[in-house]
Every structure is written in structure tokens, then in C-alpha cells.
Specification:
Distance between the termini: 58 Å
CATH class of the largest domain: Mainly Alpha
Strand order of the largest sheet: 2-1-3
Structural class: mainly alpha
Number of helices: 17
Shape: globular
CATH architecture of the largest domain: Orthogonal Bundle
Helix content: 55-70%
């Protein structure tokens, strides 16, 4: 049995597996392994062709090539496919292209900071601000889409090793379509911000796009340098997002910018958190980064050391949060700040211990990284109420 790649412009090497005819028959009806399960669920763009490599004779009917297509390569689908299916496949590829977990972080952060500004000035709330708030959120999603999209365009080879499920690496989205999407995100975001939020916020937004560009695009490609890479991520996802959204919200309410203790807290907290995301995001990608000579903290210091470093920074964040609630009761609600951050810290310790017990397998590393993002979402979820 041969697993061969989809006939796309971005071809993965063929994988050949030996089997007996009973296994061959079962594979068509019920998933019996991780690979067959993925085929069964149509998750990856691979075709299934059978050769006479089985130990028993196979009937001529079974000798005919059988193709199980999970490939949704835009523009490569057969002419006989319904238009609705092609549109659905394209929408799915675009959604994965946007990296949904990053969109959730951007959206939650925006809602939390807007909610905080409105809670502090509830007497100034106007329904007319709702449309402006949603246009700002759409601009942030466009900026997020541009940054993660340009990264995928220039990381196709690396993603084929580290993240073969991403749409370009998987052949589900052509490079030309990806360029059209990132161009749309950049232009739409800049237009929305320029028209609605004034020159200062426009300059912050432009700075974020610029940093996202030099992170991925040659000849800069700052992701090659660990310190520069995590500083860019921390600046964009930490300082620029929190400061920019809060400033824009107060400006929309007709108020001058003014720091508050909770906003200083979340900006500092999330900036440090973004540093952790920046160094731990490379943990599942060590294999591909080494192959393409991308220098990261994970490739230099090792997966175990980076996992401990990231956990240590987050634990420090939580300890400082608890101390802030204890010593600044006038600024923070103790009943929420203390127990919430204790629960988050205990969850982190448990997850780090589980990673150690799993001996840092790729699956355990991916689970650990997803848990860190869940902690990120949780912090924003409680922020308006602290």
C-alpha cells in the first residue's frame, strides 16, 4: 500500500507501508491506526493507492487505484465537484490560514480592554460607539491575519515538517491565493484604522504590521534570531495591542489617555506572557527549525530547559499578581485576583509535571503549548472584573 501526496504544486514525499490483505480491507471500513484514522476523517491532502505489495493475491477490482481525496487545493479541484463544495473548502482553508487560536487571543484581549474602559466610564457609553468598536476589532483581526499569513508564505518548507496541516503546506491554499489574502488584510486594516482612529493609532497599527513583516520576510527574517523574535512578538501582542486598544477606546469616549492600575497590570502581565508564548511556540517545531537552520531558544537550549523557563516566568507572573492584590486592595478585587491566579498557577504546575512525565514527546509538547494559550485566554476573561 502506498500513501502518495495530492497532485498539487506543493508535493509531500510518498510514504510506503507494507500490509496484509486483511489490514488493507479493514482500512477501507474502519480506522485502525493514526494514519488510517486521518484518512478516514479526510483531514490531510493525501491519496490512497494500492499496489501488489500485500502478502496475498488481490482481486483485479482491488488492484485498481483507489483515491481517497481529502485534498481541497484551491483551483485544483476537479471540474465535476459542486461549486458549493469548492466554496466550503476555500472557506475552511482561509479559516485555518488565519490561525484561529491567535484570533481568539486578539478578540478576547480587545473585548476585555474595551469592557474595562467602559466599566471605568459607564456614564459615557453610547450605542453609536458599537459600530466603531466592531470596525476596530475587524482591523485587529486583519492585522493578525496579515502577520500570521505572511509568516506561512515564507515558511512553506518548514511548515511541511512542523505543521503539515496548515493550508499552504498541505496544498489546500495556493501561494497566489495566500498573497491576495494578506494584501487584502493589510489594505483593509490600514484603511479602517486610518479613517476611524486618527494618526496616532494609525502609526501604532502600521508599526505592528512592520514588525510582523520583518519577523518573517527576507532579508530581515528576524525570526532567525531568538532575542529579536521574542521581542517582536512581545511588543505586538503585549504592549501594542493592550495600549492601543485602551487608548483608542478612551479616545472614542472623548477622554484623554490615562493609565490605570488594572491597565498597567494587564499590559505588563500580557507582555511577559507574550515572551513565554514567543519562546514556547518553537517547542513543537524543533525538528523543522533544525532542518532549515532556524535558530530558536528551543534548538539552542533544548525543549526541557525552555519548558521550565517558560513555566518559571508564568509562575512569577502569577505570584506578582497575587501580591498586587494583597498590597493594593484599593486597585484590585482580592476575592477574584487571588483565587483565580492560584488556580492558574496550580494548573500550570500540573501541566508542566505531565509534560515531564511524558518525556517531552511531540504530542505532550503540543498539549503544553495549547494549555499556555488557554491560560492566556483565561487572563483576559477575568480582566474586566479585577
Amino acid at each position: 500500500m502506498e500513501l502518495s501526496s495530492c497532485p498539487t504544486a506543493l508535493r509531500s514525499p510518498a510514504i510506503t507501508l507494507k500490509c496484509n490483505s486483511s489490514y488493507y480491507t479493514n482500512l477501507l471500513t474502519k480506522p485502525t491506526s493514526k494514519i488510517s484514522y486521518l484518512l478516514y476523517r479526510n483531514q490531510y491532502p493525501i491519496g490512497l493507492n494500492y499496489q501488489r505489495s500485500c502478502s496475498k493475491p488481490v482481486s483485479k477490482r482491488l488492484q485498481r487505484p483507489i483515491s481517497i481525496r481529502a485534498c481541497t487545493h484551491v483551483g485544483a479541484a476537479g471540474p465535476d465537484r459542486p461549486v458549493a463544495d469548492k466554496i466550503s473548502d476555500f472557506k475552511d482553508a482561509c479559516w485555518r490560514f488565519l490561525r484561529p487560536h491567535t484570533i481568539r487571543g486578539t478578540t478576547l484581549g480587545s473585548f476585555a480592554l474595551v469592557a474595562r474602559a467602559l466599566i471605568e466610564n459607564s456614564n459615557l457609553i453610547k450605542w453609536s460607539l458599537l459600530l466603531k468598536a466592531f470596525s476596530g476589532l475587524f482591523a485587529l483581526i486583519c492585522g493578525n491575519g496579515y502577520i500570521v499569513g505572511i509568516n506561512q508564505i515564507y515558511d512553506i518548507g518548514i511548515d511541511k515538517v512542523n505543521k503539515p496541516y496548515l493550508p499552504i503546506a498541505a496544498g489546500d491554499l495556493s501561494v497566489q491565493s495566500a498573497w491576495l489574502l494578506v494584501a487584502f488584510f493589510a489594505v483593509a486594516g490600514l484603511l479602517i484604522v486610518g479613517i476611524n482612529f486618527g494618526p496616532f493609532i494609525f502609526s501604532l497599527y502600521t508599526l505592528g504590521l512592520f514588525l510582523g513583516t520583518i519577523y518573517s520576510v527576507p532579508p530581515f527574517r528576524m525570526k532567525r534570531f531568538p532575542v529579536a523574535a521574542f521581542l517582536i512578538i512581545a511588543t505586538v501582542r503585549g504592549f501594542l495591542l493592550n495600549f492601543g486598544v485602551y487608548y483608542a477606546t478612551r479616545a472614542a469616549l472623548g477622554l484623554p489617555f490615562e493609565w490605570s492600575a488594572p491597565v498597567i497590570f494587564i499590559t505588563t502581565f500580557v507582555t511577559l506572557f507574550a515572551l513565554v508564548i514567543a519562546i514556547t511556540k518553537d517547542l513543537p517545531d524543533v525538528e523543522g527549525d533544525r532542518k532549515y537552520q532556524i535558530s530558536t531558544f528551543a534548538t539552542k537550549l533544548g525543549v526541557r530547559n525552555i519548558a521550565f523557563l517558560g513555566s518559571g516566568i508564568l509562575l512569577m507572573n502569577y505570584i506578582v499578581s497575587i501580591l498586587a492584590a494583597i498590597y493594593m486592595p484599593q486597585a484590585f478585587k482580592r476575592w477574584l485576583m487571588i483565587p483565580a491566579h492560584m488556580i492558574f498557577a496550580l494548573g500550570l504546575i500540573f501541566q508542566a509535571r505531565a509534560l515531564e512525565q511524558a518525556n517531552y514527546t511531540k504530542e505532550a509538547i503540543s498539549a503544553f503549548y495549547r494549555f499556555i494559550w488557554n491560560l492566556f485566554y483565561a487572563e483576559y476573561a477575568i480582566f474586566p472584573f479585577i
